[in-house]
Design goal:
There is one protein chain. The protein is 31% helix and 24% strand. It contains three helices and five strands. It has a five-stranded mixed beta sheet, with helices on both faces.
Length: 150
């Protein structure tokens, strides 16, 4: 894969070992799941985390990935809303008509458990409140992963 070649985004630095951003649009849930698995990598076995990826209106991934590690078992709605405010601002400024994809990560996860369901609901509620379209929510565990919904 090649890197996303957008003026002002590319620069050499300490993130050079990160996965390469796809150069093709992420058109379906499986594309998003594949990218999320690549991004999360060995963190699949780590503490619970939320990974957020932004897509432009054509499905191209923006070079914005927000991994939030050590998330609580029960989301705090006010905190989830604050994160969504930031994501909405980025989309409005850099990718009007774009969307968000989320990965809910925990070592024992990767399926539709209570942890994943409560986080998916919190994310979708906060996204709806801010007018952010959600392309997909995926559950990622150490040994399995699946799309929860789009």
């Amino acid at each position: 894969m090649d890197t996303y070649d957008s003026p002002g985004w590319a620069a050499p630095g300490p993130d050079d070992d990160l996965p390469v951003i796809p150069t093709h649009p992420l058109r379906d849930d499986e594309d998003i799941l594949e990218v999320m698995l690549s991004l999360v990598g060995p963190e699949r076995a780590g503490p619970p985390a939320l990974w957020l990826v932004l897509l432009d209106a054509d499905g191209m991934m923006l070079p914005v990935v927000l991994p939030l590690s050590g998330i609580p078992l029960q989301p705090e709605p006010a905190q989830v809303r604050q994160v969504m405010v930031a994501m909405a601002d980025i989309l409005r400024h850099d990718a009007p008509g774009g969307s968000l994809a989320a990965g809910i990560v925990r070592a024992a996860g990767g399926d539709r458990g209570s942890f994943e369901r409560v986080w998916e609901h919190a994310l979708r509620t906060a996204a709806d409140d801010r007018g952010v379209r959600v392309s997909a929510v995926v559950a990622v565990g150490e040994h399995r992963a699946r799309v929860l919904g789009s």
